[in-house]
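pls design
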């Protein structure tokens, strides 16, 4: 599994790592932890649930830091949503891949919904109702894994925010699929086979390609003859179905920065679709400046950012379908779209990363009249 390495930290006083204290657990926060307040300081605590009373052990923090990080190492008063983690490697000091194995699946989705609502409110100024929709399975769902090779042929995964590795005999979210160079996507809009480099990007959840294609096409309702931009197009998952929807009188342009993904996209898309290699911002700065009817936007975790949003708005699409794996980045970009005349009209969220804090959203932005 991929992970985000911690930034190098500068000492701001005496370390508090290893200190323990009892605390009431507050609300869930973006990133797979809950908020605890201690000594006039925020502590982001993993392995806890809102409303619990726990013993917290500090894992990162010193006297001068604005906030600390910690683990709930003992639960004194448990939430009714707490369960025994199905995986023996989930817990303080163990594998850092899963954040919410100690919560029921229903509670996990409620926690993710709360995070999406909070990010949309804080960063986009919108009060949005959010329901995170279940997408089975909740275990054995991940199609691609990245393990750390260990001596003797063993394999492991990293501890949260650490270079330390935990030996893993069996990861319960690993679907156990061998790497291969093609994927079949069966949707209500048809079935297609996609060439995908074994080391290239593909949606992690077994059912994610179907779900996302169906939602994007349903929201955009592309018609014959329409002009479509597919940005951060990958191997052409959306572009392939969009090209069929707009037909020979329409046009689809897929823009992607990875040369390997572009190579695969050219195999996956019909001749009528154009695959353009290059960073999305740079390509849009110099080409395809004519009007487009529709845009699919599926950026990396950091989001599209304002410059790309502005270039999209310059094409005056009637609608933009934004596929986002990070609710904070989505909210910031939604705020940029709003400033430039586009309104968030639909927001759906899907539990495509069960047992983790991650959530996939699909937002529809439409031009204000």
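designed seq:
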């Amino acid at each position: 599994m991929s992970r985000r390495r911690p930034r190098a930290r500068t000492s701001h006083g005496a370390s508090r790592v290893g200190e323990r204290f009892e605390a009431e657990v507050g609300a869930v926060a973006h990133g797979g932890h809950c908020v605890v307040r201690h000594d006039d300081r925020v502590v982001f605590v993993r392995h806890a649930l809102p409303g619990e009373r726990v013993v917290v052990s500090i894992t990162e923090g010193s006297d001068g830091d604005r906030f600390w990080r910690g683990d709930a190492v003992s639960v004194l008063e448990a939430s009714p949503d707490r369960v025994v983690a199905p995986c023996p490697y989930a817990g303080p000091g163990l594998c850092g891949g899963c954040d919410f194995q100690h919560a029921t699946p229903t509670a996990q989705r409620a926690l993710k919904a709360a995070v999406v609502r909070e990010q949309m409110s804080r960063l986009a100024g919108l009060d949005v109702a959010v329901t995170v929709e279940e997408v089975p399975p909740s275990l054995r769902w991940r199609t691609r894994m990245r393990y750390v090779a260990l001596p003797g042929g063993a394999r492991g995964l990293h501890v949260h925010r650490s270079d330390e590795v935990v030996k893993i005999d069996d990861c319960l979210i690993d679907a156990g699929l061998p790497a291969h160079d093609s994927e079949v996507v069966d949707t209500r809009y048809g079935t297609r086979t996609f060439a995908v480099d074994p080391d290239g990007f593909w949606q992690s959840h077994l059912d994610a390609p179907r779900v996302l294609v169906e939602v994007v096409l349903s929201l955009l309702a592309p018609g014959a003859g329409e002009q479509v931009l597919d940005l951060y197009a990958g191997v052409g998952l959306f572009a392939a179905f969009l090209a069929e929807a707009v037909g020979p009188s329409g046009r689809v342009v897929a823009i992607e920065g990875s040369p390997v993904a572009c190579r695969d996209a050219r195999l996956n898309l019909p001749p009528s679709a154009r695959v353009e290699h290059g960073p999305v911002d740079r390509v849009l700065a110099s080409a395809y400046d004519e009007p487009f009817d529709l845009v699919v936007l599926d950026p990396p975790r950091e989001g599209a950012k304002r410059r790309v949003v502005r270039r999209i708005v310059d094409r005056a699409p009637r609608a933009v379908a934004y596929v986002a794996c990070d609710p904070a980045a989505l909210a910031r970009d939604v705020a940029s779209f709003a400033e430039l005349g586009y309104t968030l009209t639909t927001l759906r969220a899907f539990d495509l990363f069960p047992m983790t804090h991650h959530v996939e959203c699909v937002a529809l932005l439409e031009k204000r009249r």
